[in-house]
Specification:
Largest sheet of chain A: 6 strands, mixed
CATH topology of one domain in chain A: Rossmann fold
Radius of gyration of chain B: 21 Å
Distance between the termini of chain B: 42 Å
Helix content of chain B: 55-70%
Oligomer: heterodimer
Structural class of chain B: mainly alpha
Structural class of chain A: alpha/beta
Strand content of chain A: 15-25%
Chain lengths: 504, 342
């Protein structure tokens, strides 16, 4: 492919460390005795359980329904009995707990009756989206946004280009790479369905040039399938090319305007893993119950990619790969640049868990950071053209207004600035802190405003009530006076009459 | 546990402050060799004295400010300040001049502003200017390049000269000293001589001052190495030299009797030292790309204005300090356009 590509400012050429986990084919993780399924594994509202403790469930059976618009269903990854519906620790940067359904598996792994559709063009776009929603499919690239919404452009938008993101720019992660190598046809199945649902003109499958096997696998599958206007575009390996906005810039030269979405440029992006899941859901009737997870790192003896049922405890997965955890070393969920440190590994694998990383080369140093020497390397590396160094000064001084002036919320937290900093300042950490603080403040302001308005309204209401009361009193008094006057008048008239009579 | 281990990114590049400082010192080596060749070994003694004093002053200030000694003494920044000042001083500057300069640079210009990273002015240039204003005679007592062929200076006699003011054979500093080419150019233009005639004198070489021109060329070599190793970016040197070339070329064509040629200005005095090693000091220079271009151009223009119309023969130090003052303003108005901004 010799297509003219654009590029984004900054970025980094990182040591991919991909070979570590691409030496073996995707393996099946053995069935775990217990599966723990958080009700919220996606962006939006948590799903609502439709089973009760003690219920028997089959593999692929729906156990929670979507609640509200931005939500998807949840299914039992294997057959067994509902053991509990309660709060359990979930994978989260702050180590939160949330409502989960626990299933004790029976080892039979028996499927519920399910069947795919031979010709999906028999379905309307709306029916397709509903099926994708019911199948519980969310973006498998890491964000977990319900996919059916991104397949619904709405009446006011028309989609020109569908971008399949197979860039996978973070070091160590190879789940999309391996999926493309081994299931190219399954990915194309999903692409065909999305093309139909979106009525797109062009489809681009973007893959980084360090994945030659994946590129040839997809290209080979494409020559057999002949999807209309669909092509593979090989993008240069430069982190973070796989970030949606940066990928759009590389492929089209356009920037998604601040506050807008790719759809405003007539573009929709989906991850290749999501595409595969959509293909399975529509053509085979299988809901989303597992995903490919990369388990890798310097302390993982048998690194590789595994097909893992959701709810499988991470510690079992790590033990399966023979992991030697060093004391004090982080368990990273996601990649080394944007992932987060898990509080422990007694946590379930969820829909968004693409990689578990234990042990990295070139780990960030333990020593205290040096002062900023204003070298500007961070600004050179920033893919969104921020000035991380200025942001750092203001974040450190807790001058939140100033951080907004320097566009804090445009930061994508890719970590390039921290990586290049010669003083080893954890810049992104400061930016996350400033973002959270700002959002808290805004929340507080909202609350305060709300309280003030309520107070004002109450006062107005009391004022009104007081006036009404006074008015009523006045009316009553007036009425009283009127009746009194009338009575007097009556009395006077009567006496007049009496007088008259007497006078007669 | 340090923050860096708690949140992403968990990877870190190989860049270090110390590494940058070491590269900078390495890049100065060729020019320092040239200085020794043309002006004798005095600069090495001055440099050694300056480094020792700088480290002592740094340690003292860190102690007083309750800061850890090891990371800051080994970051190399104090040594860089000492070396840059030593190069800027006259080759046989008396020991007390060096001492005052170094102490002022480290204690006042650096630590009283908060130490590494917090000083708004380049410490070496602050010290240089303080010395220039306070001790104008000593600061302008240079060796003419030609004198060394008559009175070769070995390291021992240079040592005696720096610490006692004369050699054991009784030669005093005054017997050796003379004006710098920039100084001579300025004085003689004042006496209504034409620059074209002035450069015919033995003090001048092919393009600039004799000896000075080669030192400047070797500063360029070192500077290109720094750009290649990404210790500095090209913006400041290029815009500074472009501005200096432009204004001196205009003057040269409009009224050649007013000042030296563009090449003379580029290859005399501290031009190249300033362009690649002083103005590029990250702490005190502008940090945005556009800002660096503005900053460099400002240094170039001010250098020329001070050299030609100001009271001092060279203007690098003043130009850098004046532009340092404008850095916050420049940085504020040269912010890059963020992704997706209209």
């Amino acid at each position: 492919m010799t297509e003219k590509l654009s590029s984004f400012p900054g970025g980094l050429v990182l040591d991919g460390q991909k070979r570590r986990s691409t030496q073996t084919p995707i393996r099946q993780m053995p069935l775990s005795k217990k599966l723990i399924l958080p009700l919220q594994q996606h962006i939006g509202e948590a799903s609502v359980p439709i089973v009760e403790v003690g219920d028997k469930v089959l593999k692929g059976q729906k156990i929670a329904r979507a609640e509200g618009h931005v939500s998807v269903c949840l299914h039992a990854p294997s057959s067994g009995v509902i053991h509990a519906i309660n709060e359990q620790p979930i994978p989260h940067p702050s180590g939160l707990s949330a409502l989960c359904i626990s299933i004790e598996t029976d080892g039979e792994d028996r499927w519920i009756d399910h069947q795919g559709i031979n010709d999906f063009t028999q379905l309307s776009e709306h029916e397709l989206r509903q099926r994708i929603r019911i199948a519980g499919i969310v973006g498998l690239g890491g964000a977990g946004f319900p996919s059916f919404i991104k397949l619904n452009p709405g009446v006011q938008h028309h989609i020109d280009t569908l971008i399949l993101n197979g860039v996978e720019c973070e070091p160590y992660i190879t789940c999309d790479d391996m999926l493309m190598r081994e299931h190219a046809n399954g990915i194309l199945d999903g692409i065909e369905i999305m093309q139909y649902a979106l009525q797109v003109k062009n489809t681009i499958i973007a893959i980084e040039d360090n994945k030659s096997e994946a590129i040839s696998a997809i290209e080979q599958a494409l020559t057999q399938r002949k999807l209309p206007n669909t092509r593979v575009v090989v993008v240069p390996t430069r982190y973070p090319a796989g970030s949606e906005k940066q990928l759009i810039q590389v492929l089209t030269g356009k920037q998604v305007p601040t506050g807008k979405l790719p759809i405003d440029l007539s573009i929709v992006c989906h991850n290749v893993g999501t595409s595969y899941a959509i293909g399975r859901a529509i053509n085979h009737g299988e809901p989303l119950i597992s995903r490919i997870v990369t388990v890798t790192g310097t302390d993982v003896k048998h690194a590789g990619n595994f097909e893992v049922l959701f709810g499988t405890p991470m510690d079992e997965l790590l033990a399966f790969c023979d992991t030697k955890h060093q004391p004090g070393e982080p368990f990273i969920l996601g990649g080394p640049m944007m992932g987060y440190n898990l509080s422990g590994v007694n946590l379930p694998v969820t829909k968004t868990a693409n990689c578990i990383l234990v042990g990295v080369d070139n780990a960030a140093p333990q020593s205290k950071p040096m002062p900023c020497i204003r070298c500007g390397e961070c600004a050179t590396a920033c893919p969104v053209s921020l000035l991380p160094q200025q942001l750092y000064w203001h974040a450190r001084a807790k001058d939140l207004e100033k951080t907004q002036e320097y566009n804090l919320f445009d930061c994508i937290e890719c970590g390039c600035c921290s990586y290049v900093c010669p003083s080893k300042i954890p810049l992104v950490h400061y930016f996350r802190f400033a973002k959270t603080e700002t959002m808290n403040q805004q929340q507080e302001t909202l609350k305060a405003d709300h309280a003030r308005i309520r107070h004002d309204n109450r006062q107005d209401r009391q004022e009104l009530e007081k006036k009404e009361k006074q008015e009523r009193q006045r009316q009553r008094k007036a009425a009283l006076a009127a009746t009194k006057a009338a009575k007097e008048k009556e009395a006077a008239e009567q006496s007049d009459e009496v007088d008259n009579v007497e006078n007669k | 546990m340090p923050l860096s281990r708690l949140s992403s990114p968990f990877l870190s590049g190989t860049n270090r402050v110390t590494l940058q400082m070491l590269q900078l010192l390495l890049a100065l080596v060729p020019a320092v060799i040239a200085i020794v060749y043309f002006f004798g070994p005095g600069v090495l003694i001055t440099m050694a004295l300056a480094i020792v004093l700088a480290l002592l002053a740094e340690a003292l200030m860190l102690k007083l400010r309750n800061r850890p000694l090891k990371p800051f003494l080994t970051d190399g920044s104090a040594i860089v300040t000492a070396v840059l000042l030593a190069i800027a001083l006259p080759p046989l500057a008396p020991w007390w001049l060096v001492t005052i300069g170094v102490l002022f640079a480290i204690i006042f210009a650096k630590h009283l502003y908060g130490g590494l990273g917090y000083n708004p002015f380049n410490p070496a240039m602050v010290a240089y200017v303080v010395l220039l204003i306070s001790f104008p005679l000593e600061m302008t007592t240079w060796l003419p390049v030609t004198i060394l062929s008559e009175h070769p200076l070995d390291i021992a006699s240079a040592f005696q000269m720096i610490f006692t003011g004369q050699t054991s054979s009784g030669i005093s500093i005054d017997a050796l000293s003379g004006a710098t080419p920039l100084d001579a150019m300025k004085t003689q233009i004042g006496l209504l001589q034409h620059p074209v005639d002035i450069v015919q004198q033995p003090l001048f070489g092919l393009f600039g001052g004799k000896g000075w021109e080669w030192i400047n060329v070797l500063f360029i070599v070192g500077g290109l190495y720094l750009i290649y190793r990404r210790v500095i970016s090209w913006h400041i040197p290029v815009s500074m030299l472009a501005a200096l070339t432009l204004i001196s070329a205009i003057t040269w064509f409009v009224s050649p009797e007013l000042a030296g040629s563009p090449l003379f200005h580029l290859l005399s005095g501290g031009t190249m030292l300033g362009a690649f090693f002083i103005a590029t000091d990250p702490i005190t220079a502008s940090t945005t790309v556009k800002g660096r271009i503005v900053f460099g151009a400002g240094v170039g223009l001010l250098t020329y204005i001070i050299r030609v119309w100001g009271g001092y023969p060279d203007g690098i130090a003043f130009a850098v300090l004046l532009m340092n003052m404008l850095v916050p303003l420049i940085d504020y108005y040269t912010q890059p356009k963020v992704y997706g901004a209209k």
